[in-house]
């Protein structure tokens, strides 16, 4: 069965989609929502291109979801697409968060509010786990699992600082991926 070619996105569509995504994501999980909208629903890009964007967004400085939005916008329509995705993902949510902060400063002591916010955070975490599992299904070989396990052990269990762990394990991971790519090309 042939896969349909990705559909060309218009700039107002990119702005609208990313504004809605930014407004709908509370407590994280934005890459999962982006995947649903951009890959599954609108078919603007392939699964492989989206996963490449996640990987790139994680190694660049700044929030992963913003990096991913900029990557998607750039892939769809170049610099104007990246500008629309960035404006959409950051603009309206910033205004809402600013308003919520003002409300929380005034009414934050209301009983039960922390339970609601905890539930929103749990939903965001679950969405992030779904994206992680999708990504994990595409891992080939044992080395990605070893690097992921070493990262979890170092940061999650041993409580080592994240930046030194990443500075050590990122080059290891890149070297292993490069070596695997060369071996695959030679075969």
Walk me through this protein's architecture:
By secondary structure, the chain is mostly helical. The protein has seven helices and no strands. It has helices at residues 11-24, 30-41, 47-59, 64-107, 113-137, 143-157, 162-186. Helix 6 (143-157) packs antiparallel against helix 7 (162-186). The radius of gyration is 19 Å and the shape is globular.
Strand share of the residues? under 5%
Radius of gyration: 19 Å
Low-confidence stretches: none
Task: Label the overall shape.
Answer: globular
Distance between the termini: 27 Å
Largest sheet: none
Q: Report helical residue fraction.
A: over 70%
Run of helices and strands:
HHHHHHH
Please count the helical segments.
Answer: 7
- How would you classify the helix and strand content by structural class? mainly alpha
The whole-number mean of residue pLDDT values reads 85
Total DSSP E strands: 0
Task: Report a brief summary of the structure.
It contains seven helices and no strands. It is mainly alpha-helical and 187 residues long.
Pick out its properties:
187 residues, mainly alpha
What's the layout of helices and strands?
Elements lengths: L10 H14 L5 H12 L5 H13 L4 H44 L5 H25 L5 H15 L4 H25 L1
């Amino acid at each position: 069965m042939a896969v349909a070619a990705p559909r060309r996105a218009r700039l107002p569509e990119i702005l609208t989609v990313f504004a809605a995504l930014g407004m709908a994501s509370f407590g994280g999980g934005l890459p999962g929502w982006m995947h649903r909208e951009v890959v599954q629903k609108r078919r603007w890009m392939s699964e492989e291109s989206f996963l490449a964007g996640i990987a790139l967004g994680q190694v660049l400085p700044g929030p992963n979801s913003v990096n991913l939005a900029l990557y998607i916008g750039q892939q769809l329509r170049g610099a104007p697409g990246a500008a629309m995705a960035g404006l959409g993902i950051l603009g309206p949510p910033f205004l809402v968060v600013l308003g919520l902060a003002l409300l929380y400063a005034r009414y934050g002591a209301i009983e039960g509010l922390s339970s609601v916010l905890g539930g929103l955070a749990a939903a965001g975490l679950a969405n992030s786990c779904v994206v992680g599992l999708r990504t994990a299904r595409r891992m080939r070989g044992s080395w990605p699992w070893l690097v992921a396990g070493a990262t979890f052990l170092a940061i999650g269990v041993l409580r080592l600082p994240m930046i030194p762990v990443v500075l050590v394990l990122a080059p290891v991971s890149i070297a292993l991926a490069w070596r695997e790519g060369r071996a695959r090309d030679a075969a």
